């Protein structure tokens, strides 16, 4: 169980090692997911023929649109991941929201590059788990 102590004289709050390590790991994974999205976006923008998909896929979008979506999402995810590593409180909530949106985008992008997207979805699930469980430990005491 995590322990959080608060020193009334200094106003300093010390968090457990588990909460700090879990949040830092979530930030690192979030930066990694952001970089994976950026790579997917750049490939989609610069080489339209790289991704192959069947004509029967229900969600048909332009590769340029997908590339820009992945590029923008990747940059926002990476910046939020860096803020999470730095300990910004706003980044905890935004990390959960963005990781959820990343899961949706990766699911829609699944026919284009399935293995890559399974890895991204797994990393996003870890980020959501790590941020929400560690946040509870920080607020419990």
UniProtKB/TrEMBL annotation:
Secretion signal, residue range per the UniProt entry: none
Transmembrane parts of this sequence: 20-46, 66-84, 89-109, 115-132
Domain DUF7144: start-end pairs: 23-136
Keywords: Membrane, Transmembrane, Transmembrane helix
Top-rank taxon: Bacteria
Protein name as it appears in the record: DUF7144 domain-containing protein
UniProt source species: Kocuria turfanensis
